[in-house]
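Cross-check.
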Amino acid sequence: MADSCNTIQEFVDGIAASVAVIGHDESGRLMVPACNDGFIQMTGGKRVGMRAFPVPFDTLIPNYARHEFRQKLQECFTSGIAQELEQAYDLRDGTHWWRLSLKPFRHANGGATVLEILVTGLDITSRMQLTRDLEATTSRFRSVVDAAYDAIITIDQQHNITLFNRAAENLFGYSSAEMVGQPIECLLPDKYRTHHAQYVQQFARSPVRSRQMDERNRVYGLHRDGSMLPVEIAISKINVEGLIEFTAVIRDITDRVRLIDLLQKQAVTDELTGLPNRREFLDVVTNILDTEEDLAVFMLDVDFFKKINDAYGHDVGDEVLRIVAKVGMGSSRKVDVFARWGGEEFVAALPGLDAEQARAAAEALKSTFEQQDFTHNWRIGIPIPFTVSIGVASRKPGERDAQAILKRADLALYKAKETGRNRVEVG
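Predicted model, tokenized:
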């Protein structure tokens, strides 16, 4: 036995890796008949003072590493199939990681029973450290991405989603598990899907590394419930082993868009009546005059409006103006524009109508106010009788000057008021 151990010891001492031979003694204990210095250093032991081989397995292997090591040895002894495991050993200079390969070494009489196992170990500390560093970096990256206020989505070269952070889940209503692997187009409204792949390819070929998407126009995403989300998007691209990945940072701008729309509406809307204001009306008329379409306009003034204010108060006067707005809008066609010009004056643009057709529409509106032919709950409890005067003008052939048409309508209105009010005149 001693000669056999010496022969094996000489063999393992000549191997550069960590090497040991492990078998059993007569009582069934795990024994190490031979191992090299690399194996002893791996486990943190010392050859100095060590008795002659074989030595008990437990003498060489620290307590914290024995259980897993024993299990793998037992599997190898029982099955005769090579096994592998990775173990960490805490030494004075720090923790070292080893990959151990266990291979059947000798069989009883050439049979199936395994007598000894050859264990070889490779130091993988550097690789494990790199792996740990990578995991730590990835963990930090994931933490930052998931904590981000903005949605972050990454797609691969085939436009499939590879990253979908928590803010993206909140924004679009899908979980990351549902979206990873799905095409990015599923987050786009139908009308934006057709050309999206082309835009991405153009960006992929561009030397620009990052940019704001569609800075001049609104961009929309598609929520799980089918609603459209106004968003602001910044995209960047990186080359990963020859393949391009795209990352989009997406910000929900619903509140901003709502505010912008409100401000734009306020800029062109009369606050008291909700009608288009003078500026909006002039823009509409100017656009119509850029065409050859027929156009008639009229100007309407509430008769004796000052007397209404003096007799009932300005709140009632405002109520009368709101009634004029409501009835005027209700009597207009979809293509007409009924607007407040200022004070108690209102204007209307009637595309496609000539002077006589516009006069008939104005007469019908005048009669509605004269006869109080509308439903309204007066806040003072009784109806306030009032009438209106209207001046009508139409576009002359080839006319482009909105002010000229409105001037003729204003003169016609002045004539209606001078000739008794509650009238319609054509200028």
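The mean pLDDT is 87. The chain has three domains: 2-128, 148-256, 268-426. Passed to J.P. for a second look.
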